[in-house]
Amino acid sequence: MNIQIIGASGFVGTNLLGYLRNSSQRIASVSLRGSDWRNFVERDAQVYINLVGKAHDHSGVASWDDYLYVNVTLLKEIFEQFVNSSATLFIHVSSIAAIEEFESRTPLIESNPSNPISYYGKSKRSAEEWLLRQIFPDNKKLVILRPPMIHGPGDKGNLKNLFKFISKGFPYPLSAFENKRSFISIENFCYYIQEILRRYNIIESGVYHVSDGDALSTNEVVEIIRISMGKDMKKIVIPKCVITGIARLGDFIPIPLNTLRLRKLTSDLLVSNVKINNELGIKKLPFDAREGLRRTINSFK
Hints:
The protein has about 300 residues and is of the alpha/beta class. Helix 2 links the parallel strand 3 (about 45-50) and strand 4 (about 90-95). Helix 7 packs across helix 8. The protein has ten helices and twelve strands. The protein is globular and about 60 Å long.
């Protein structure tokens, strides 16, 4: 099978390229950094995988137009190439942020109402809505994937920042909060892609959530980091009311914590993978949530 990956230069793309090449697929990758990217699209590709996207901007510099251009405008151009090609499957990697960014105490399913808050989440949802409105020939399929946070070797996001913090011997200051969150390891994410490719004749067009299945509390994540380092670390429990007060103060003065950031760090965000597992006949993923996390933490060392 000939596969065209668009936007393969990032963390997910480099891992996916290596994974699929090991499975003897014929892979071509294209970067959209140049204006002539259309000239490098594989003409005989049977599948397009779109990884192009602008992620969260924690510095707050990026504007709505920046997100709109990368996450929506470029998507439209890529999809136009797909429609005018002989390819039959378009896999678009969206995000769970398209429907929820902060809290869900019951596992999110694909039919839940959308509640994006940030420019990132809103632009991801706008891209989904545009795709789902498109009409194209019966021989072509559209699969939209919504992962939660993806982690693995090469990850430079929040999980690595937490690892650096804990590895310096600092006690985790939010241990009073017992939240649970869904993640997906890069190995499990790539496995889902592989299974979609392997069974693309039976998978129906639509939106699918992908995750490790089991959710982990942040305290569990911290404990896995501690064990992986083989160190005993001090544990402090700061009362929730004190943390909440500090966060409220951060709404007015520039400190690392504010109420929005605290909510994101301490709320439950659970994601169901039941629909795609049933669709593809998946009984068990390559790694459970804890083993996947251990592999990622070990890669940081």
